[in-house]
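User: For my dataset I need records formatted as: sequence, then structure tokens, nothing else. Please produce one.
Assistant:
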Amino acid sequence: MMKKKRNDILVTGSILTSVMLLMILVGLFFLPYDPETMNIDLKFAGISWRHPFGCDNYGRDIFTRVMVGAKTTLLVAVGTVGIGAGAGVLIGAFTGYFGGWIDEVLMRVIDALFAFPSILLALVVVSLFDSEKNQVLSLLFGSGKYQVIIALGIAFIPSFARVVRSEYLKQREMDYVKNAKIMGCGHLRIMFVHILPNILSVLVPTLMIGFNNAVLAEAGMSYLGIGVQPPDASL
């Protein structure tokens, strides 16, 4: 019997992901130090048993901030994918299943959003939440990481909508959908009980890719100064 070759990339990725998830889980209950407390005496302190990753330019423990930052990044990624996938699945399902003018109107809006780079679109949305410009939106959606989640979530809607729409266009012509219509099933039941489970093989990988892209997008926004704002920590 031929021995199956081990996927080293998968193993390495699984180990790194497990380590990060373990750090996040531990950080929910225990943190070695206060991630926001500054100590000028420990400015740029090197690696030691008390500070495994050393200290930053404000004397804050870097390992503690990595634990907190991992939790923040996970929250941003999950929230972004949740908004993007939730709205994208609904738009893609209705446009792909019904077609007609619904498809034309919604997909033109999606095309308009898709024309903008995600970072640029997120920048526009974040600027709308600026407390000095719009205090109402700032009060409703909070600040910092919550604005980033909403901004990236909106930017991610077009990619999910396109994937789901293409799958619904194929599935609506399948025999099981026609049989469900003959049996008197309603449109919503056919869309979300019959068709949706059959596109999970495509949707789940798209969610995983979206999760990865959300982490990278959040890092890019932070580099530009419009991401998670200090003193909150982020990877």
